[in-house]
From TrEMBL, chain B:
GO MF term set: ATP binding
Organism: Pseudorhizobium tarimense
Transmembrane segments: none
Keywords, alphabetical: ATP-binding, Nucleotide-binding, Transport
Record family assignment: Belongs to the ABC transporter superfamily.
Domain ABC transporter: start-end pairs: 22-249
Name the UniProt record assigns to this protein: NitT/TauT family transport system ATP-binding protein
SMART domains in the cross-refs: AAA
Amino acid sequence: MQMSVSPAKLDNGIGASKEAPPTVLEAIRTFADERRSFWIVVSLLVLFVAWEIAGRIPISFAFPTFLETVSAFGELVADGSMHNAYFLTLQPLVLGVVISAAVGIGLGVAMGLSDKAEWLLAPVFIVLQAAPMAALVPLVTFVYGIGLTAKTLAVIMLALPVIVLNSYKAVRHVNPSLVDMCRSFQGSRMQQIFKIIIPDASPVLFAGLRLGIAAGFIGVMLAELLITPTGIGDLITYHRSVANYAHMYAAVASIIAVSTLTLAGLQYVEAHLLRPEKRRK
Amino acid sequence: MANSALARGDNLKFATGNDAVVQVRDIFKNYGDVEALRGINLEFERGKLTTLLGPSGCGKTTLLKIIAGLVPATSGEIRVNGRAVTGPGPERAFVFQDFALMPWATVLRNVGFGLELKGMPAAERDRTARRYIEQVGLAGFEQKYPHELSGGMRQRVGIARAFAVNADVLLLDEPFSAVDEQNRRKFQEDLLRLVELEKKTFIFVTHSIEEAVYVSDRIVLLSPRPGRVSQIIDPMIDRSASPDDIRRDAGYLDVVEEIWQGLRQYAE
Ligand SMILES: Nc1ncnc2c1ncn2[C@@H]1O[C@H](COP(=O)(O)OP(=O)(O)OP(=O)(O)O)[C@@H](O)[C@H]1O
Ligand SMILES: [Mg+2]
C-alpha cells in the first residue's frame, strides 16, 4: 500500500526540485520535521489508499471502496438521515458520559481519599468492570424498555466502572511528597485535595475519562444494535439489510471519526486547561 | 587558621538554658517492627546550622520529619520555641530531598505556594516570591516550569519556597544530593550566605562529611538503626577565610578525619 503512495510523492518532489531547487523540498522537509499534523495526514492517507485498493480488489463483495464510502456519506448528509441519526445517538451518549464522568470521578476520588469509601465501593466496580457488559445490556431493555433511559443506562454501565477505577488509581498514585509539602505549609485538607491531589492526579483522571468515553461509544452502539434500532445503529443495520454496503460503512466510519475527534478534543482540553506545562513540551 | 579548635559535646545531654529553638525530648520511632529511632535528645540553637549525619537508613529523614510534624513519633516530645508541637507549624519550613515541586506550576507559583496556602493576596505573594527567587539566583526563571530547570535549579526553587514563608527554622533533607560536585560547592557557599543573611535556624541532613564540616556550626552523628545520637561535634571553622583555604585548613581536615573515624566503626 505504501508503494502506491511513495512513487507519486517522489515524482512531486523531483518535479518541484527541478523548478525551484531547494525551497519546496526543504519546505516539505521542515514541515515534516516540525509538524505532527503532517504525519497524521500521511498516516490517514496511507489508510485511505489501502482501503481504496482493498475495495477495488475487492476483498469481499460487501466491502466498498473508500471513494464509494465518501460519496455514500455525502448522500446520507444531503438527505438528512445522518443528522437525524446523530441527533438520536448523541443524546444518550452525551447524557451517559456526563453522568458517568461526574459520578465516576466523584466516587473514584472519594475512594482514593478514604479507605472506608474504597472498601465499600471498590469490590462493586471491580466486578462491574470484569463483567461482560454486552451480556447485561439486553437486561436493561427488559427493565427500562427501548427509550432514552435504556440507552443512557447502557452508556453508563460501560463508562462508569472504567472512570471510577481510574480516578481511584489516579488519586492513590499522587506523589506523596507533594502531599507532605502541602501539609508542611499547613495546607488544609481542602487545599490539599484541590491544589495538590486533583491536579497531580489529572493525567490519570483524564486517561480514565478517555477510556470511559470510548467505552460509552461502545455502550451506545451496543444498545442501538442489540436493543433499540435507532440512531447510527439503525442506520448501520438498515443499510446492511438492504445491501447498501457503502452507506453502512459510511455510518460506521463516521461514528469512529466522531469518537476519535472527541477523544482528541479531550486531550487538547486537558493539556490547555489543566496542565499548562504539557504545552511547552 | 589554627584557631579552629574542636569542641565536643561528650555529654550527650548537653546543657539546656541556652537559646534552643527546637528541643527534641526522648524521641522513639518504630515503623511496625522496624525501630528507626531510639531515645533521641537534642537541642537546636537559634541562628545556628546543625547537621544530622549518619549512615544510610539511620533515621535522619525520619527525625527531620518528626521535627517538621510530618511524621508522628511513637513516643517523646518536640518543642519549638518552648511549645510542644504535634503537627506542622508556621515557624518551621521543610526543603524536600526530591524537591516536591508542583510540575504544573511555574517557578513563581511554586515559590509563593506556602503564602498562597496561607491566603496571602496574589500581588503581595508574587512580590515576596520574586524577592526570594532573586535571592537564590533564579531571577528571569519566574515563568518557567520545573521540568525546564536543572536539578540544582529545582532545589533552589524548593529553598526559595521555604524561605518565602519566613519560618524561624528551616529543615533541609539532603538538599544538594541531586547536584554535581561543582554545583554542590557553589550551593554550600550560597547556603552559608543565606544563613548569614537570614539569621534563621537550620537543621540540615547530609551524607557528605565534607559538606557537614564545611557548613555546620554543630554536627550530630547518628548511629545505625536504631538511630541514636552517638557524637556531637562543633567544627568551629573560621568562615572568614576563602572557601578554598577552608578546605585546605588543618582544623577542617582534622574534623573530617575525626568524623570519618567515628563513622568507620559502623562501616565495618
Ligand atoms: N514510611 C516508612 N515505613 C516503614 N519503614 C520506614 C518508613 N520510612 C523509613 N523507614 C525505615 O526507617 C529507617 C530510617 O529511615 P530514614 O529514611 O529516616 O533513613 P535516612 O537516615 O534518612 O536514610 P538515607 O540516608 O538513606 O536517606 C529505615 O530503615 C527505613 O527503612
Ligand atoms: Mg533520608
